[in-house]
Amino acid sequence: MISAQTAELRLSLRRRVLQRAADYRRRVAPLTPQRLAAGIAYQWRRAPLAGRDGLLDPASKTIVVAAEQAPVRQLFSLAHEVMHYLIENDEELLSDLHEAYEGRRLEAALEQLCNLGAAEMLLPQRSVLDSLAESGANPRLIWELAARHAVSQATAAVALTTSLGDDSLAAIWGGRPMSLFFGAGLCAAPRGAVLPPNHPLNEVASSGLPHRGPLKLPGSSARSAWARAYRGRVYLLAEGVQSLAR
Ligand SMILES: [Zn+2]
After folding, report:
1. Is 81 designated active site?
2. Predicted structure pTM score
3. Which residue among the candidates 8, 68, 81, 88 is catalytic per the annotation?
């Protein structure tokens, strides 16, 4: 268990990263790739990156994003790298990060914070909260917000769990056997996790009928989950999610 003080510091880090991202968005909007990079006095270009999404090259002041990815994904990678720059050049954030996390967890926490900030830049929490107030925790918001704001569905999933809170989960499933394309939230299963054949989400995929209610997932259980099929995939938003790890 972590101390209450460390838990508070971690929450405060998330709040401040969201604030930095929102400030950056206001300063450089509209967020074209060019303007995103120019906001930190960098240029940007596409190049093959052999499995990486993006990287920051301080020597040439260039952000490189993976050429093989779709434009919405490249924009997210750009925003992610800008967040690296903003956090790593902020002494206060950096020292709190080192106090709140150690070793391998530090690196993972930094990556998560950069994703959090990138999602906030491209899809402001205000819009997400308005949509949630209107529709409830409806999984259709994953594809609707993505289309409306020209961001990836992964970005929308991250933004939704940020607004819904620490015990929420957003996920996109598909393929045969049905496996996880993308999961957001503290209890999300790893990418590629496979559902057992008799799992209720398989039923959602084959019947097209939504699932609403409690749900067991790989590695976690949800008090309240809502899943629906759309264009061959199953979209899930869940609240009251608990890890099953012992
Ligand atoms: Zn990163």
Report:
1. yes
2. 0.78
3. 81
